[in-house]
Amino acid sequence: MANTVWNSADKHANITLSGGNLIATLTTAATGSVRAVDRQLTGKFYWECAFTTSSGAAMSTGVASSTVATTGSLGTLTGVCVVARNGSVINDTTTVGGIAFGTITSGMVMCVAVDCATRLVWFRLGAGGLWNMSAGANPATGVGGVSLSIGAGIPIYPISGFSALNDAITANFGDTAFTGAVPSGYTSGFTAGASVPTNALASQALAEHWLTTNPDARITQVVAEHWASVASDNLQAVVTFVALEHWTSVAVVVPAAGGPMVTMIH
Fold first, then answer.
1. Least CB-packed of 34, 82, 123, 206 within 10 Å?
2. pLDDT band at 118, cuts 50/70/90?
3. Pick from 159, 96, 158, 170: which is nearest to 133 by CA?
4. 3-state SS assignment for residue 175
5. Range 180-205 burial, b when 16+ CB lie within 10 A, else e
6. What sign does the CA torsion over 179, 127, 112, 142 have?
7. Is residue 132 classed as helix, strand or coil in its secondary structure?
8. Per-residue confidence (pLDDT) for residue 210, from 0 to 100
9. What domains sit in the chain, N to C, each tagged with a CATH number?
10. Per residue in 7-48, pLDDT tens?
11. Tell me, what's the pLDDT at 194?
């Protein structure tokens, strides 16, 4: 199965792609990021990103949702979990306690393992490093992962950020041999993304009108309900419910043949 690459249409304008869109380089000083072409909803995936040239404070790599802007530092945005150049893990603008890799210098490789079902992510510096800097953390057993705020049903993308001129990250999404071992149970690489459902849509409109021959009471009810899975990558269920009820005692003349009458539109 084909693996993903960096997305030439989903990046900061000052980032240039090369090497089959696997090398991302900041060619003009700015703060921004690049997202991968593909995304995943379920499954377990492993890939690596080499900090080919590393100097900027906002340089980072990890995962994000599609709604994260490609301008600005990833460490200041929500819907993001990344390892910054200073070695800290930043999850939704908050530094995760207990994980400190130290400064990531040029040539170092950050390994990433994400479980899309449980919404957990692990990072490892190089082949022999500890996952999330803990001897007990292990993607294969599901222990010690960082919990993502990217909710269930929202696609997860690889992402990398930059801030200093000529900084570069080279991604290995599975097309070549990895530096480290792939965790047991994980896909070797980040494969072409799963299809995201965009056509689940149910709409209901209901109107009821009851009359009696001796209308001491009349009930009018209008209900509108709209369930939608919207056509975007932020696939949370949208539920809108509007209801109006009107109860009244009225003096009206009803046709002699008029018994209970119900009108419903669906």
1. 206
2. very high
3. 96
4. coil
5. bebbeebbbbbbebeebeeeeeeeee
6. positive
7. helix
8. 44
9. 6-188 (2.60.120.920), 197-266 (no CATH)
10. 999 999 999 999 999 999 999 999 999 999 999 999 999 999
11. 66
Give the residue from 5, 35, 29 showing the smallest Cα distance to 18: 5
C-alpha to C-alpha distances, 139 to 183, 215, 218, 238, 266, nearest whole angstrom: 6, 69, 63, 32, 49
Cα–Cα distance, 141 to 242 (Å, whole number): 45
pLDDT at 1 over 70: no
Q: What's the whole-model pTM score? A: 0.76
Distance CA 89, CA 107 (A): 19
Q: Does position 265 have pLDDT exceeding 50, yes or no? A: no
- Residue whose entry in the numeric block shows the structure tokens 């989903």: 10
- CA 145, CA 154: separation in Å to the nearest integer? 18
Tokens representing residue 155 in the block: 């696609």
- Any idea how long the chain is? 266
Please answer whether residues 89 and 146 qualify as being in contact, where contact means their C-beta atoms are separated by less than 8 angstroms: yes
Q: State residue 133 phi and psi, 5-degree precision.
A: 55, 35
What is 96-120 written as a DSSP string?
EEEEE-----TT-EEEEEEETTTTE
CA dist 9 and 29 (Å) reads 19
